[in-house]
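tokens incoming
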């Protein structure tokens, strides 16, 4: 234990958190892309100067970036040479602590009074980084080069000056390049805000005191996580999850999760999971580990986030499986989809050990839909990227939340009014996916239905989603949640012709013409407990609100 008094320690802890929160806010307020400014698909953090370990991350950032930014910062530290104040490295290489190529990371050395004190880093989801399809979510990619531009750690800013030559290379290889410069400058500006706020904190308390607080906070987070793990009975727990397909081979990918609880530590072993796949549903190691970290944070939300949180979580590298992708395996689905299946496998394994802490599986898909084309009215190209919500699983004390955000983040669906303002589309429906909640003593929450009609021009649609073949798993006798569904409706001279992707939840390069529609229904959460034990008044309320038909109630709840 340090000699810091508790009040100073908690003030510094909150101060570090506030630095990250202000970076988050600056980033989203200045960004041009709705996926960052409205959907909040971004994150900011502070990392250790030598190890790259996480010191603090903003409350407003995506949890899946907790681990991945730590790994990408470490990759920068290993390769950085002759760093100076004002330098900013850009990196999106999945195999160097990344996710998919659209998650672009900026990493900046932070100097205090002439000495390197820490690293500031952030991630923003760029709507496009090149590749075969607009938006980067290629469902049929068989190598990473088909997914977009891959950047190793390079200095995009040198002593505060943007390198125009590197910038020109980037902009020459991505779509809608004229709009990316706004996101780039917003991302850099957020790190600048972090510099100012962290300098103020150090000016107030001194570098030595803040460093002592950082070390103490790491130790306490480790102790807190160990104390929570100690509540789990010793033993071996097994669970699993299924990915619909890899987008190329129409066969499911299986995640086998074995968790061994020993004292105050957990050992995670995914041996026996499916081998590396041909399509883009491979997961890089950084994303695989981060998915386990965020799953445990879901289970123990009171444990603060820093590198100490992860110390009691021991992970066996899942060599020879699709959860340890190596170059040139495609990975566009790893962060938004496979990561959620990994978390789902953790939940599934630990439910029997902690039924009072856990829950049935949530929808577990980000619903990635990209629409790219040319707007003849505005005379400019565009790439629209949409994230959608789904149902959460029921738990021992209540029903699941409807239209909740994905397991991996706090990102939200961009308001449809913003979408219609930016892009030549019209939303004809946005409603609850009634009946999609898995039956249980406590039912799952509901997904959503939405319908997009293209108003003008021609576009190409691509999607990488999941849970189209099997729904989110129920727990303790509960029913699985409803499925993800995608249909494209083409207007023809003979009427409407419907198209369902062969892989159900994944496809790419579907030509969309004016009047054509994209219809999506997202999954509901799994049910928790025996459906026959559901309270009669709750059943009556569900029927009254139109959540289920009387026939569905009779078939699924037994009455």
């Amino acid at each position: 234990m340090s000699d810091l008094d508790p009040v100073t320690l908690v003030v510094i802890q909150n101060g570090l958190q506030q630095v990250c929160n202000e970076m988050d806010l600056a980033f989203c307020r200045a960004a041009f892309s709705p996926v960052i400014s409205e959907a909040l698909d971004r994150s900011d953090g502070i990392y250790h100067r030598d190890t790259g370990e996480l010191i603090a991350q903003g409350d407003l950032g995506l949890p899946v970036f907790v681990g991945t930014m730590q790994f990408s910062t470490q990759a920068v530290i290993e390769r950085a040479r002759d760093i100076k104040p004002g330098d900013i490295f850009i990196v999106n290489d999945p195999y160097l602590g990344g996710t998919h190529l659209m998650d672009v990371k900026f990493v900046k050395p932070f100097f205090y009074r002439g000495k390197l004190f820490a690293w500031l880093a952030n991630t923003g989801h760029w709507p496009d980084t090149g590749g075969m399809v607009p938006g980067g979510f290629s469902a049929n990619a068989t190598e990473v080069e088909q997914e977009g531009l891959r950047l190793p750690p390079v200095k995009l800013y040198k002593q505060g000056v943007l390198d125009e030559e590197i910038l020109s290379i980037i902009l020459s290889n991505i779509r809608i390049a004229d709009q990316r410069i706004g996101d780039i400058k917003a991302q850099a500006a957020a790190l600048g805000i972090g510099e100012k706020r962290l300098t103020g904190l150090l000016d107030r308390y001194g570098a030595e005191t803040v460093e002592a607080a950082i070390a103490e906070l790491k130790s306490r987070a480790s102790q807190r996580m160990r104390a929570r793990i100690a509540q789990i009975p010793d033993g071996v727990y097994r669970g699993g999850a299924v990915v619909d397909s890899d987008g190329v081979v129409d066969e499911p990918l299986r995640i086998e999760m074995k968790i061994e609880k020993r004292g105050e530590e957990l050992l995670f072993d995914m041996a026996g999971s499916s081998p590396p796949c041909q399509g883009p549903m491979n997961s890089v190691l950084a994303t695989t580990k981060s998915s386990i970290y965020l799953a445990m944070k879901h289970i123990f939300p009171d444990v603060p986030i820093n590198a100490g949180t992860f110390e009691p979580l021991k992970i066996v590298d899942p060599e020879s499986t699709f959860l340890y992708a190596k170059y040139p395996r495609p990975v566009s689905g790893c962060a938004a989809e496979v990561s959620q299946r990994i978390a789902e496998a953790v939940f599934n394994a630990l439910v029997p050990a902690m039924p009072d802490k856990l829950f049935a599986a949530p929808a577990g898909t980000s619903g990635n839909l990209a629409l790219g084309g040319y707007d003849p009215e505005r005379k400019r190209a565009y790439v629209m990227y949409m994230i959608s919500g789904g149902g959460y699983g029921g738990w021992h004390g209540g029903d699941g939340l409807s239209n909740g955000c994905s397991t991996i983040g706090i990102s939200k669906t961009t308001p449809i009014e913003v979408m219609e303002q930016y892009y030549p589309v019209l939303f004809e429906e946005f409603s609850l996916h009634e009946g999609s909640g898995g039956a249980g003593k406590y039912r799952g929450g509901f997904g959503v239905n939405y319908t997009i009609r293209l108003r003008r021009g021609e576009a190409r649609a691509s999607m990488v989603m999941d849970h189209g073949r099997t729904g989110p798993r129920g727990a303790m006798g509960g029913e699985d949640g409803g499925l993800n569904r995608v249909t494209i409706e083409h207007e023809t001279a003979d009427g409407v012709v419907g198209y369902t992707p062969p892989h159900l939840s994944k496809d790419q390069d579907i030509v969309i013409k004016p009047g054509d529609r994209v219809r999506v229904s997202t999954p509901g959460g799994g049910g928790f407990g025996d459906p026959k034990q559901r309270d009669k008044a709750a059943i009556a309320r569900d029927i009254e609100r139109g959540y289920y038909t009387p026939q569905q109630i009779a078939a699924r709840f037994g009455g």
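note: The two ends are 58 Å apart (CA to CA).
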